[in-house]
Amino acid sequence: MISLDKFDHRILTLLQDQADRSNLEIARLIGLSPAATLRRIKSLKDRGVIERVVAILNPHATGAGLLAVVEVSLERQGEHALQTFAALACKQAEVQQCYQVSPGPDFVLIAQVPDMPAYHAFSQRLLAEDANVRHVKAYFSVARHAFKAGLNLKAPAR
Questions:
Q1: Domain assignment present for 22
Q2: What's the pLDDT score for residue 1?
Q3: Beta-bridge partners for 70
Q4: pTM here?
Q5: C-alpha angle 91/77/84, rounded to 5°?
Q6: Same domain (yes/no): 70, 135
Q7: Which residue segment(s) compose the domain that 109 sits in?
Q8: CB distance 42 to 27 below 8 Å
Q9: Nearest Cα to 127, choosing from 55, 58, 62, 73?
Q10: Partners of residue 49 on adjacent β-strands
Q11: What pLDDT is recorded for position 51?
């Protein structure tokens, strides 16, 4: 775990909420100089706290309106088999998130596709053709009530 102080937490909270804030705005909001703020942001990136900065798109506005939560159980769960499936799943453009989980299925995938025919093509390509896939169970989102990309950070008491 990387040590973070109250200024780091404030910076991270602001960036998680709106990553395109200017350095000057962040500095003003947290009460540090722009130079000190920029050094801190660079340090957070260098230390791997900030992995990357992205734009979150509206799936319906971009034509990718069907979200599938897919549970996958494998026939063989050896380390090589698990890593092979994870690598294959992560290569798929439709897969936004891939989690190896326990107990229950071996993997949970979050896949975003335009429609049911696109999901069917994706599932055939990834799931039906892999001889090690034993069982697949998919859930389809009918409404999104919350979507948070940020982490819930607790600032240090000091």
A1: yes
A2: 83
A3: 109, 138
A4: 0.82
A5: 25
A6: yes
A7: 66-140
A8: no
A9: 73
A10: none
A11: 94
Q: How far apart are CA 43 and CA 143, in angstroms?
A: 38
User: What is the reported pLDDT for 156?
Assistant: 66
CA-based nearest residue to 32, from 54, 50, 5: 5
Q: Based on the domain organization, do 75 and 115 belong to the same domain?
A: yes
Task: Report long-range pairs for 9-16 (Cβ below 8 Å, ≥24 apart).
Answer: 9/153, 9/154, 9/155, 9/156, 10/155, 11/37, 11/40, 11/41, 11/44, 12/44, 12/49, 12/50, 12/151, 12/153, 13/150, 13/153, 15/41, 15/50, 15/53, 16/149, 16/150, 16/151, 16/153
Task: Specify which residues 113 forms β-bridges with.
Answer: 66
pLDDT digits (tens, 9 = 90+) for 37-75: 999 999 999 999 999 998 888 888 998 889 999 999 999
Q: Which structure tokens are listed for 140?
A: 């389809």
- pLDDT tens, residue by residue, 100-133: 999 999 999 999 999 999 999 999 988 877 779 9
CB 155 within 8 A of CB 9: yes
Is the preceding omega at residue 156 within 30 degrees of 0, hence cis?
A: no
Bigger pLDDT: 27 or 157?
27
Clarify whether residues 42 and 70 are in a common domain: no
**Structural domain total, the chain:** 2
Dist. CA 44–CA 151, nearest whole Å: 15
Residue 31 inside a domain? The answer is yes
